[in-house]
């Protein structure tokens, strides 16, 4: 019976008409409550046609325009109410400027990066919620956004630059970030440069060093810190301070950071620093010793070779190089540079011990002049008083656009110059038609002749940091 009962259903009691009506009313009430709940829940649906209509009708077609903007030979029929989103136009319309009541305004565009296509994107961004920025156009659009003070578009350009960093864009984006004040982008670009690329940059004979070799070391220290601490998000002004604190807080049982397992991958880059031109300055030498980043055997080797170079200069009356071996010169010469912001008269020297050869560099009337200075010295015996001293040099000049591309360059090639005491020599005469400022001047120098190379097995010398002074 139990088994049979599980398969058979007992007959139901008959349901009266009143009960049926009651159940039907309850079902209808439940449906009504459910529908009411659905109606009360907000549904978010983007009206795609609205923003599209505004952009096409008001911006592209210029309907109901109340102002015309002319720039770079092109006109835009726009609307003041939309232009006031721009800090540039908001100030223009709200102040006591003559343009406040004008309906035709001609803009002067001082930035060569800005073109009509960039202005089209910048003006169009005022009429739409989103803007598609191509990486190849981001610098020109950033320039336009900065001029018009479009904060939202500036931020979007910065994000685009961060997302599209590559070995091809890193230099141009970095330069643009510095020009237009995007510190976060500059930081990202420094950190992006991988070890292989950085090694190529530092070892390149075409590298422009501003100001001296110590600045190469400082740049690499900051770069390595960003590589090792990718979570760092401070300001660029704080970067060096934080990097110094990070490296100096450790005690290395093996002697230096580059000797540690964490630091060894970066040794291939740091070996291209020409340490002989870092330790020739007291302040720089103290920083190198404090940081304990550089391998101690590298430093010992450089101190030794510099000591012998000084003795040759003082006791053997070394007159300096007589000829140039291009390969050795490119690998071992002193690298230094100077930026001239505008045309004018300049005179400067690069600090550091230079084996009794005090070299003054002058730019005036489109001439670059070298002078061997012996009379004006802070103390007796500071310079060599030999009748003649030789110096090997390579002089290069270049101007760059805001994308980091060379727009003008000159070079004096590889030269050996013999100077008497206090003699001046014009080393380059520049064509005013080719001069574009700011002008970057990069020099390579050799003050002493090559010393005798150590015999095999005599000492271990880093090949990138030995040989010439």
TrEMBL record:
Annotated localization: Nucleus matrix
Pfam family, one: BTB
Keyword annotations: Developmental protein, Differentiation, Nucleus, Spermatogenesis
Keyword Nucleus: yes
Top-level taxonomic group: Eukaryota
GO CC term, one of those recorded: nuclear matrix
GO biological process: germ cell development; spermatogenesis
Annotated BTB domain residues: 65-135
Principal cellular location given in the protein's record: nucleus
Protein name: Germ cell-less, spermatogenesis associated
Lineage of producing organism: Eukaryota, Metazoa, Chordata, Craniata, Vertebrata
Recorded name of the encoding gene: gmcl1
